[in-house]
Amino acid sequence: MSEMSYSQKIHPGSQFPELKARLLSGEEVELGKPGQDADWRMVIVYRGRHCPLCTKYLNVAEQYLAALKDIKVDLVAVSGDSAEQLQSHLEKLQVSFPLAYGLKVEQMKQLGVYISEPRSEQETDHPFAEPGLFVVNQEGKVQVVDISNNPFVRPELQALVNGLGWIRNPDNNYPIRGMHQY
Question: Residue ranges of the Thioredoxin domain (predicted)?
């Protein structure tokens, strides 16, 4: 029996870690920093090219870009895939938001996502992150966090985007939830 180790989870309200990954253009992107037309950022951590559910989720996320832009939230997705794996994954992706690659195991640990080993070389050739979704507010703090240990459980994007619109409305004065640590 192998020894169990437990990852540290990112807590709501904490500073999102300063993590960088690369885009296929060669540009380095800081995952938690929004682009110029937004002051919040959604970070989707996905398993990689080998996961058809990730492909579907990312393609669905594309449909919400305009709604996210309206509430000043931009989107980046990242995996532990190599540049070559991401390049070949583009054949199945119809997205215009930035896709970063090369997330290292140490960075996965900083994010607190679950990490899996491939079942075979046909699946992939490296440990990979299970799904995670983080929404980082204008102060660089984690406003929303969702992590899963398998590809079948992820936030439903319509509900999430609607909820973010509600949270972003100053009339609602909605605080970061889940701040108590027991």
Answer: 10-166
